[in-house]
């Protein structure tokens, strides 16, 4: 029951338009994020296999198994004490291979992949926002169109009323003129 109470917090997404747009953007981005994650796992697996084959003999605590190597590379990708804790001790033993290995992984894993994920989410958010704006613009256009049509109908009614008024004044003037002609002829 307590877990169901937490679901009530999701009502914020229905009440706030900006949160709703953000949630839609995340939902739209999920397939692309999935493909980027698959790419990341392949990248991680390749680099883990290379790391295990190169560094497992001298550094079993970091690359002794596939699981340990994957965790080490995940730590490197997040840039959490990778230089002092992992890379420098390995670079002392492998001065040529280790710098190339770690720097290429950081460039591909941290900078390119994480920026690509941020770009996917941003792109999806922009698409959702643009759709929302087009929808609002369409609704505003319909409202303006209806207002213009209502004004045209009102103007036609007023124009007909003015025509009727002018015709009634013209008839009154003609009747007054014919009455004066009759009075003038009789006199």
Mind summarizing the main beta sheet?
none
Helical percentage? over 70%
Category by helix and strand content = mainly alpha
Q: Give the number of DSSP strands.
A: 0
What letter string, H or E per element, gives the SSE order? HHHHHHH
Number of continuous helical runs: 7
End-to-end distance: 106 Å
Briefly say what this structure is.
The chain is 90% helix and 0% strand.
Explain what the structure shows.
- With 187 residues, the chain is mainly alpha-helical.
- 90% of the residues lie in helices and 0% in strands.
- The protein contains 7 helices and no strands.
- The protein has helices spanning 2-7, 11-15, 17-55, 60-63, 66-77, 82-93, 97-186.
- Helix 3 crosses helix 5 (66-77) and helix 3 (17-55) runs antiparallel to helix 7.
- The protein starts with a helix and ends with a helix.
Descriptors:
187 residues; mainly alpha; 7 helices; 90% helix; rod-shaped
SSE map:
Elements: H1 2-7, H2 11-15, H3 17-55, H4 60-63, H5 66-77, H6 82-93, H7 97-186
């Amino acid at each position: 029951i307590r877990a169901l109470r937490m679901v009530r917090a999701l009502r914020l997404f229905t009440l706030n338009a900006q949160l709703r747009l953000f949630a839609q953007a995340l939902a739209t981005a999920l397939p692309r994020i999935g493909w980027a994650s698959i790419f990341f796992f392949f990248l991680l697996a390749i680099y883990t296999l290379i790391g295990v084959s190169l560094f497992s003999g001298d550094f079993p605590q970091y690359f002794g198994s596939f699981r340990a190597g994957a965790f080490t590379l995940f730590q490197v990708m997040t840039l959490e004490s990778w230089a002092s804790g992992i890379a420098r001790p390995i670079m002392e033993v492998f001065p040529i291979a280790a710098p190339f290995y770690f720097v290429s992984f950081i460039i591909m894993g941290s900078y390119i992949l994480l920026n690509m994920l941020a770009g996917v989410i941003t792109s999806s958010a922009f698409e959702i926002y643009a759709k929302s704006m087009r929808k609002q613009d369409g609704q505003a256009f319909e409202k303006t169109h209806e207002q213009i049509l209502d004004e045209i109908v009102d103007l036609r009614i007023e124009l007909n009323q003015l025509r009727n008024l002018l015709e009634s004044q013209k008839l009154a003037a003609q009747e007054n003129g014919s009455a004066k002609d009759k009075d003038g002829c009789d006199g």
